[in-house]
Amino acid sequence: MAKVSLLQCKEYSAFMLKEKMFQGLSAIGLEPSIFRGKKVIIKPNLLNASAAEKAVVTHPEFFRSVVQIVKSSGGTPVMAESPAFQSLSKVMNRTGYDRIVAEEGCEVADPKATAVLFCDGQGKYKRFELSKALFDADIVINLPKFKTHSLTYITGAVKNLFGFIYGLNKSQWHVRARTNEEFSSLLLDLYESLIKGFEKPKQFIHIMDAIVGLEGEGPGASGRPRRIGALLVSEDAVALDCVAVQLVGLQRNKARSVVLGEERGLGAGSLERIDIRGSMLDDFQVRDYVPSKSNGGHPVYRWPLNTNFFRNLILEKPVPTRERCTLCYQCKAICPGRAISESQGDTGVPLYNHEKCIRCYCCMEICPESAISLKRGKLQWVLDLTEKRRGDRF
Ligand code: SF4
Ligand code: SF4
């Protein structure tokens, strides 16, 4: 049975938050002493530069309480986050996080420093370029904000981990995985890599800010703040999201990362398999929480942006080089898109069909000769320009 602490918490006061967090950790068998001498990555949801009361970001006082718990327990907290479209410095300034990290002496990981995590799991995507800070951490504390989402129906613990991918690189993943089903699957590929892909596994703790959530057209400024009054804690991100969805009366079946996460054995996605500690679901009276009108059905990019033609313009394509290739065909064996076929004529290298290629880059990871390089898409300069403009001082 997965364990999820569900606690009533009505305000963002330091005293109340810390008391509830201690209770929540203890109820699932975790004592703060686990942080002693450990490097602890703290990952809030800083989607964009909006004030805390808009309920788009994890409340800054929620973040502060976790930092204080880690510090007072002898651990070293490091904040890691990378907003998709705005610079981290701008977002931290507007949300009040810059003041908190200064007051608490919390290090902020450079969002531009990344490293590759490869995990040969059951998913389609096995290779992720993620915040480098993650690789040096012992423990990861994930702080999702509970929100509705026009593509994935909800954004919770599983979705918040997507923020470990650097800035605009997130958009490229949206080009690869365009529907709720595809994108939720991709999120689970990432989740599987995080929990199984590190040589020395890291401990993941998810603490959800559902004190004030976001309903309607989330996850950004078009959504409406909605008081829920809950704080949830678990080591199982799928189970935590499952409880959160049903806490506010949304439909579990539409939260595809919950359903698929259970099917893939990555967590408990049904209440029968979850031991809820603290409060009962019935203690909460949120019965008319409003989902996004799309009900998780809006692809992020619409035609023509969601075509293979556009994908070829905006994403790097893998290209084998003749000089190094030994025709071992390990790339063909691992390719989930069946995009690689045997060399024909005198080309001397495998044939890549870039129309079929889903840009997972598993072939690059597996190639023993480093014979595959990346050729830039013709429109990638547009992303580079946007990247240059936003800057990042960390
Ligand atoms: S894995 Fe590398 S060396 Fe082997 S066939 Fe593919 S490109 Fe060539
Ligand atoms: S050819 Fe494309 S789909 Fe196949 S392994 Fe390489 S990147 Fe992935």
Give a structural overview.
There is one protein chain. The chain is α/β, with parallel strands linked by helices. 31% of the residues lie in helices and 22% in strands. It contains 14 helices and 16 strands. Helix 1 (14-27) crosses helix 2, helix 8 (180-196) packs across helix 10 (256-263) and helix 9 (237-247) crosses helix 10 (256-263). The protein is globular. One iron/sulfur cluster (SF4) binds at residues 320, 325-331, 350, 367, 369, 371-372.
Question: In a few lines, what is going on in this structure?
Answer:
With 394 residues, the chain is α/β, with parallel strands linked by helices. It contains 14 helices and 16 strands. Strands 1, 2, 3, 4, 7, 8, 9, 10, 11 and 12 form a 10-stranded mixed beta sheet that branches. A two-stranded antiparallel ribbon has the order 5-6.
Give a quick set of tags describing it.
two-stranded antiparallel ribbon, alpha/beta, Alpha-Beta Plaits, single chain, 394 residues, 14 helices, 2 domains
